[in-house]
Amino acid sequence: MFQRQSLVAAATLWLAAPAAARLPSQAPPLPPPDPGRYEIVQVDTPQELADACWNLESRQAIVVAPGTYDLGDVDFPNGVDGRLTVGRFGAPPIADIQIRGATGDPADIVLLGRGPLDPLVPFGFQIFTATDVLIADLSIGSVYYHAVAIQGDQGAERVRLYHTRAFDAGQQIVKGIAGAHDVAIEYSEIFHTAGAPQHPEGSPPGSCYTNGVDALGVSGWVLSDNLIRGIYCQDGTLAGPAVLLWQGATDTVVERNTLLESSRGIHLGLGPGDHTGGLVRDNFVRWDPDAPYVVDVGIYTVSPGSLVLHNTVLTEGRYPNAVEVRFASATGVEVRHNLLDAAIQPRDGAEPVVEDNLTNAQPAWFIAPEGGDLHLTARATPALDQVDALPAAPNDFDGGARPAAPGATDLGADERGAGGPIFADGFESGDTGAWTSTVAQPR
After folding, report:
1. Cis peptide before 204 (omega within 30 of 0)
2. Residue 181 burial by Cβ neighbours in a 10 Å radius (0-12, 13-18, 19+)
3. Do 253 and 306 contact (CB within 8 A), yes or no?
4. CB burial of residue 280 (10 Å; 0-12, 13-18, 19+)
5. What is the DSSP string of 158-216?
6. In angstroms, what CA-CA distances link 127 with 224, 271, 327?
7. Quick one: pLDDT band at residue 11, thresholds 50, 70, 90?
8. Which of 174, 314, 335, 348 is most solvent-facing, going by the fewest CB within 10 Å?
């Protein structure tokens, strides 16, 4: 199981090269739980799953058989409602836990609440007094609050979400509470199938109150190789960011993700003092030009010392700025080597270093922008072979090494020819069923 120092290193030692970047449908398979290390608990009904989560002990691995699990039908051990607890509220801590789909395909194991407006199932997984937790290869959604909630206030930290699908939560889809340090979200899909509803417990009540990933007062979060989409409000108002780390968060790394069809993109903080440090590199962000909802900026930072490097952002004319750096307290921010179709805007006294970016990118420069495939084509001449490689961004969206020769590095997240595009014609290739099918809805 991964250790705290490995995630801290991922957040702070930015020069380390990734193995090979892929999107969720190309996630490298994890080895099965080691029976020499873990007690393996096999479950194949919703009741067995709820009981196994409630009774978890250190060094146990729950393996979930294929099927659709209606959490609303469960007689929950907590005697209250339909959440899956990992470490009981107020109980002694447990550590080194795995909860795994049996097949390696998240589409095969779908855990469902009763919908984002029905409080019968308030959470998917709610992690309390547990550390070193792996949740992998399953889908969880249609819940009232959060599909995954990591309760740092109860001691939860060092959590890894790998190759999961988290969707259709009434509020934020993945939530981190202060103290939930060193979380990795990798090769996962985080989405609303048709936008977020107006929620009875919104802020204010009755409003749309959503984000894709929302964590406050945390450190060392790493989001890599994910697909985050559909983070918008059904009523057309402005949704929260697809990725928001704030209220004292530090050293967040957001890299090699694809963000589509959302209102707002990657945010390191909202107001002054909300975030410190952080790295946003090698991401694809593309907004829908025909979206019926309000659209805002793709990348936003208020974080002193943060780096925004080699991202590709297409606002499609829906918002005047692709990157914003805000507040005089956001000192030492660097925005370099990004490929954008809109401006880089300092706001409210910010004075970032802005060097070697291009802000007039055209759709024809990319393989399939309508599907989010922002790999470069031969038409992207103004972006090709323009700059020197940056030490803090040695690899591109696909994990290929950027060239060492002076002036041989392309702008944006893709280095044309570094590793070759993953997709030839569109956003996915091969069998896309695990990532584009309609998720079964609760009764």
Report:
1. yes
2. buried
3. no
4. buried
5. EEEEES-EEEEESS-SEEE-TT--S-EEES-EEE-SS-BPB-TTSSSTTSB---SEEEE
6. 21, 28, 35
7. very low
8. 348
- Which distant-in-sequence residues (6+ apart) come within 8 Å of 331 by Cβ? 304, 305, 351
DSSP state of 241: P
CA of 43: how far to CAs of 46, 51, 246, in Å?
8, 9, 37
CB atoms under 10 Å from CB of 98, counted, come to 25
For residues 97 and 135, give the distance between their C-alpha atoms in angstroms, rounded to a whole number. Answer: 9
Handedness of CA 353, 327, 257, 183 (dihedral sign): positive
Give counts: helices (H), strands (E), the chain.
Answer: 3, 36
Q: What is the largest CA-CA distance in the chain?
A: 64
Exposed, middle or buried, 424 (CB in 10 Å: 0-12/13-18/19+)?
exposed
Residue 21 pLDDT: 46
β-strand partners of 345: 324
Contact 153/147 with Cβ under 8 angstroms?
no
Q: Looking at the domain covering 4-436, what would its CATH class be?
A: mainly beta
Sequence spans of domains, the chain? 4-436
DSSP-derived secondary structure for 120-150 = TS-EEEEE-SEEEEEEES-EEEEESSEEEEE
Q: Are 96 and 58 in contact (CB under 8 A)?
A: yes
pLDDT tens figures, 45-104: 999 999 999 999 999 999 999 999 999 989 877 656 668 999 988 889 999 999 999 999
Question: pTM value?
Answer: 0.90
Determine the distance from the C-alpha atom of residue 189 to the mean position of all C-alpha atoms in its chain, rounded to a whole number. Answer: 7
Q: What is the mean pLDDT of the chain?
A: 90
pLDDT at 85: 93
Helix (H) or strand (E) holding 67: strand 67-70
Give per-residue pLDDT as tens, 143-187: 999 999 999 999 999 999 999 999 999 999 999 999 999 999 999
Token pair recorded at residue 433:
């069923």
Terminal Cα distance for the chain, rounded:
37
Query: What single-letter amino acid sits at 329?
Result: S
d(CA 363, CA 379) in angstroms, rounded, equals 10
Quote the CA–CA distance of 214 and 243 in Å, as a whole number. Answer: 6
**Calpha distance 320→365 (Å, rounded):** 20
CA dist list (Å): 401 to 142, 280, 404, 443: 40, 17, 9, 48
pLDDT for 81: 66
CB contact at 8 A, 92 and 129: yes
